[in-house]
Amino acid sequence: MEPSATPTGSPSASPSALPPRGDGAAGDRAVQASLEAAWPADLPPSDEGTLLAAGRALLRADATGTGRAQWPSVFPSSGQAVAPAFAIPRFRIQAAIARQDGSPDKAVVHLVWAGQDRGGTFTDLRITDLSFARIIKKGTVTWTPQPRT
Questions:
Q1: Dist CA 55 CA 86 (whole Å)
Q2: How far apart are CA 145 and CA 75, in angstroms?
Q3: What whole-number distance in Å separates Cα of residue 63 and Cα of residue 6?
Q4: Integer Cα distance of 30 and 124 in angstroms
Q5: What is the pTM of this model?
């Protein structure tokens, strides 16, 4: 199916451009293309790459429990084991983009993902937005996850 055209004649993403639910990894490319069409890139490629890697790792840690130690400010140690909400083998990030969030020093990583919860229910096209702030300390730039509001 072709994307719909805007009044200026340029293509735009339409809801019908998304694959049907349950399409599996075959539909991931269409989901990625839809995200990119909806939000044009506005970050330097190096920042976008850094944010995408951080966003993917943070979402994976949150959903599966794997890698939480990498994010002590987000997942403080309670001394108790954490039961992951999603099984690692049944967790997949379908698409991701990173964009500015109101200023060059703030960004949001939009992630679309799929996973099977502990109850055995598999759902795709889940959406998570993670906010980051740019911190510059002694000339070194880092992107730090921000609390959800």
A1: 17
A2: 11
A3: 37
A4: 13
A5: 0.82
